[in-house]
Fold this sequence. Notes:
The protein contains 3 helices and 4 strands; from the N terminus they run βαβαββα. The protein is of the alpha/beta class. Strands 3-2-1-4 form a 4-stranded parallel beta sheet.
Amino acid sequence: MKKDICVDFDGVLNIYTHYDPNDLCEMREGCPQFLEQLSQKYRVTILTSREPISVIKWLKKHNLLKFIEDVTDRKIPAVYYIDDRAVKFDGDYNKIMQNIL
């Protein structure tokens, strides 16, 4: 049974330059190969703050929907979260503050 993995949409799958609900930006180079590789081992969920239906349409337009289990704006239990703006917390508040600052 495949485990779940969450992938952020903006900045990971697309070249995120600005927020516009009507413009989901261009697909990042290598995105199809990345999602295909992930989908071979994991159930891939796209985690986004955007309206999920618009992301589904973008994925369908780029023929990527076949690699995706779900698109959601809710954080689900997963073994990994891939996000371009994430800061990993390892239990040390001082270290995380240094990383943020």
